[in-house]
Automatic annotation (TrEMBL):
<protein>
    <recommendedName>
        <fullName>6,7-dimethyl-8-ribityllumazine synthase</fullName>
        <ecNumber>2.5.1.78</ecNumber>
    </recommendedName>
</protein>
<dbReference type="InterPro" id="IPR002180">
    <property type="entry name" value="LS/RS"/>
</dbReference>
<comment type="function">
    <text>Catalyzes the formation of 6,7-dimethyl-8-ribityllumazine by condensation of 5-amino-6-(D-ribitylamino)uracil with 3,4-dihydroxy-2-butanone 4-phosphate. This is the penultimate step in the biosynthesis of riboflavin.</text>
</comment>
<feature type="active site" description="Proton donor">
    <location>
        <position position="91"/>
    </location>
</feature>
<keyword id="KW-0808">Transferase</keyword>
<feature type="binding site">
    <location>
        <begin position="59"/>
        <end position="61"/>
    </location>
    <ligand>
        <name>5-amino-6-(D-ribitylamino)uracil</name>
    </ligand>
</feature>
<comment type="similarity">
    <text>Belongs to the DMRL synthase family.</text>
</comment>
<feature type="binding site">
    <location>
        <begin position="88"/>
        <end position="89"/>
    </location>
    <ligand>
        <name>(2S)-2-hydroxy-3-oxobutyl phosphate</name>
    </ligand>
</feature>
<comment type="pathway">
    <text>Cofactor biosynthesis; riboflavin biosynthesis; riboflavin from 2-hydroxy-3-oxobutyl phosphate and 5-amino-6-(D-ribitylamino)uracil: step 1/2.</text>
</comment>
<dbReference type="Pfam" id="PF00885">
    <property type="entry name" value="DMRL_synthase"/>
</dbReference>
<dbReference type="InterPro" id="IPR034964">
    <property type="entry name" value="LS"/>
</dbReference>
<feature type="binding site">
    <location>
        <begin position="83"/>
        <end position="85"/>
    </location>
    <ligand>
        <name>5-amino-6-(D-ribitylamino)uracil</name>
    </ligand>
</feature>
<dbReference type="InterPro" id="IPR036467">
    <property type="entry name" value="LS/RS_sf"/>
</dbReference>
<feature type="binding site">
    <location>
        <position position="28"/>
    </location>
    <ligand>
        <name>5-amino-6-(D-ribitylamino)uracil</name>
    </ligand>
</feature>
<keyword id="KW-0686">Riboflavin biosynthesis</keyword>
<feature type="binding site">
    <location>
        <position position="115"/>
    </location>
    <ligand>
        <name>5-amino-6-(D-ribitylamino)uracil</name>
    </ligand>
</feature>
<feature type="binding site">
    <location>
        <position position="129"/>
    </location>
    <ligand>
        <name>(2S)-2-hydroxy-3-oxobutyl phosphate</name>
    </ligand>
</feature>
Amino acid sequence: MAASETHHVLDLPVFDKPVKILIVVAPYYKDIADQLVAGAKATVEAVGGSWDLIEVPGALEVPSAIAIAERMSNFDGYVALGCVIRGETTHYDTVCNDSSRALTLLGLQGACIGNGILTVENKAQAEVRAEAKGQNKGGGAAAAALHLVALSRKWANPSKGVGFHSDAIKLAGEAKGPTTA
């Protein structure tokens, strides 16, 4: 069981300018979603960031909402949250695969996304993973987004018309300070 394994978790990055994160949640299983959101909010706030929260009908709509926000707003990063529990049909596979694939494609286009959409066999597994004081997968997804935001800020290239470069951003595991890419 994964809960009994020890995993290495990176320290949260440190930012010199505030971070603005959009949390997109599909609250189909409301109690699970609430725990995921609580973990994500706490993690964003731990780095001095701000967050906005929107709800969408289901996990398949999460990537679309992020794509719209990436195109039309000014968020630094995104946290995708929700829960898909295996049922009796292949719909589970479609929702899991397509939502994950869409989030990955958005990330490959430069969006800083932490994927916290749980894909589980039953509600008990979801509860263990979602609990903010337990496995805290919502907080983990927010941390992933924050790490990607830190990288995007570190590597921003004004000559390409993208972002800014700051030597004051400290990435997790960066012992000697920033280096140029």
